[in-house]
Amino acid sequence: MKFDLTPPKGTKDIASDQAKKLWKIIETCKQVFESFGFEPLFTPAFEKFEILSAKGGLGEAVKEEIYYFKDKAGRELGLRFDLTMPLARFVSANPQIPKPFKRYAIAPVWRYDNPQRLRYREFWQADIDIVGSSSILADVECLACVCEVLNKLEIKNFKIRVNNRVLIENLLKPYAGNKIKQVFRIIDKLDKIGEECVKKELEEIDINSEKIMEIITMDISEINQKGKEEIEKLFELASFYGIEKFLKIDLSLVRGLDYYTSLVYEIYIEKENLSFGGGGRYDNLIEILSSRKIPATGISLGITRLMEILSNDFFKKQRKLKFLVTVLENSMLKYYIEICKAIRDQGFICEFDVMERNLRKQLDYANSKAFDFVIFFGKKEKEKNVIKLRNMQTGEEKEIPFQDIRCLSKYIS
Amino acid sequence: MKFDLTPPKGTKDIASDQAKKLWKIIETCKQVFESFGFEPLFTPAFEKFEILSAKGGLGEAVKEEIYYFKDKAGRELGLRFDLTMPLARFVSANPQIPKPFKRYAIAPVWRYDNPQRLRYREFWQADIDIVGSSSILADVECLACVCEVLNKLEIKNFKIRVNNRVLIENLLKPYAGNKIKQVFRIIDKLDKIGEECVKKELEEIDINSEKIMEIITMDISEINQKGKEEIEKLFELASFYGIEKFLKIDLSLVRGLDYYTSLVYEIYIEKENLSFGGGGRYDNLIEILSSRKIPATGISLGITRLMEILSNDFFKKQRKLKFLVTVLENSMLKYYIEICKAIRDQGFICEFDVMERNLRKQLDYANSKAFDFVIFFGKKEKEKNVIKLRNMQTGEEKEIPFQDIRCLSKYIS
Known about the structure:
2 copies of one chain form a homodimer.
Chain A: H1 16-35, E1 39-40, E2 46-48, H2 49-54, E3 68-70, E4 76-79, H3 84-93, E5 101-110, E6 122-131, H4 136-152, E7 158-164, H5 165-176, H6 180-187, H7 190-204, H8 209-216, H9 228-241, E8 247-249, E9 263-269, E10 274-281, H10 285-290, E11 296-302, H11 303-309, H12 312-318, E12 322-325, H13 333-345, E13 349-352, H14 359-368, E14 373-376, H15 379-384, E15 386-391, E16 397-401
Parallel strand pairs in A: 1-5, 7-8, 12-13, 12-14
Antiparallel strand pairs in A: 2-4, 3-4, 5-6, 6-11, 7-9, 9-10, 10-11, 14-15, 15-16
Helix pairs in contact in A: 1-4, 1-11, 4-9, 5-8
């Protein structure tokens, strides 16, 4: 029988070290998010299509960008394209939740995008959002929380671009008029298509491209406009957290989605100009679903991308020691199982051979899977009441008293 | 604007304490699975339809039981209905992986089932599988690992039904003949529809129902048949792990899917007869996809159900202490942020008010969200260089030196 065994187009299997990195990121996000008082929320992988199409006024057009399908009763559904829309639905459906509602979600999302390097149709996001507060304190709390995650993961050289939709709208209005949303969508492509192409696209809709480029590269100190004071307040509060060093004003940052209402952010690696997250304030989104006006702000980390960025050094430092207990005598399985249990109880990883194979093959396996230590316990060792511990890095062997398998740490410094 | 804000039919949002329980289960599974040497694998939420339909020989009929859709290029896809099929595809596509390949996966799966109590169309599974070993050692390792998870979660009264497909097939063949698979599917419904209905269904296909019922309720000690010795070996090895007390032979256990080849298990809560997991050996599944015969065995825990079973007491014992730093003076934000950071660094959960509201409302929030401690730091406290700590359970208040926010433990015994 012949099958095409590759995963569906635009998706991938995440295995071995990459999978462990992704888990490490998930765990770190969870731990830091919770320490800031964010609480978990799980929503279904798919939503009613009417909910998905309500966002950003895209309507039916969103169908082209998502996985759309019907269930067997003909209900229109779609895989979620982000974690913000499900949050907005949940908050709208549960108006009684105490505010601020600080929720986190770590989960995959799906977009019907053109697959390319580091751009997949299925990817993981880690989101935090604060619903119910219109204070910049909420914005900064989200930024500080994300910086803490990145610091814990020892991500170096990251920066967060900051802009204010109100400010840039005020600056561009005289030149963009009622084409402001179109202009935003074009500027948003600056990183992807470059300055020349952006200029060309602006000219195609009869916008003075020189003027636009001039404005979005202005130094903010020359500006005196509504929205600037929010950025200044943001920087002041950020300095209390010690995170102002990561922030960088960038008037060219508008972000694609229409629903941002004031401060917007984009997180990126400076050296490679690789974006891996972003967010901002969206004070009108929940109103679209529930006709209740509830302010909200949040940030999303693209953790599939973060997985590619995470250094191997950091990852290796974090990993747990791995022990293999060899099976030398089938009649002594009872002891091997006892030894495994004792080692696992100390927080280490421990396997024993479940293949009933000879010692040589067991040691091949230990090498192929990078075990740190191998343990031997045969008839001779049993008589002497010791186990033999081999360090697979150095080759050094030690005999240690059998009862000391419960305190291995002192032998493996 | 009016929207139906409920999640799609058969799915649900998992929020607040339920969401925290689910995370606790996920974390515990992950930690125990890894200690046994299982490694993570993430596969996409959807698979090519041809892969999904290859399993269990269901073919096109599986379309009725899953979420089936096409992408925009007309490719046939389906949301995964379990985590075993994606594993089989991965192993088939990556024949070079060292064996045994011990992988875990913790993720949602989707079935187009009739929603009812504790039966959803989206639910989470936590799977472990050992690929490449035909030894019963691999089966027992999986069972022991699952028992360790359930012990860590303090799940009481669980049992694991054990049977052997080979044994029950040998026993039933004389009476079921070539209708054996039909008979299996009917017996599999025993828990759901009861003995009378099972008998009726058996008679409808001209099977001696009395005889079948007699066999599947036999005591195994009276039997001398092929397959029995595997069960006996399983119990012997289980006793080395100390888990034989959880196992219970049940000749009526056949499990719905055709692809199990020998030992099969079902995990359930004895008192309520509520099943929340199962598995078994499937030595032929990978061959269907890759024409390579690779033995495999595994167990799946239904962790959405486990979430409903998890006791509140256990959960409360596990939770971290929550602190609220009240905002008394806007000019002192810097200190509040410093206090929060110090408390978070000690592993506690800490929030401060990001709503710019008065003290009364801050305390209402602390009550509604069950904070354990509230911290006050106003002008008076600043002068005295202390913070005031209120225990929200007892109402007791303490003044503690400002610098001692870095070692709160000694004040909150």
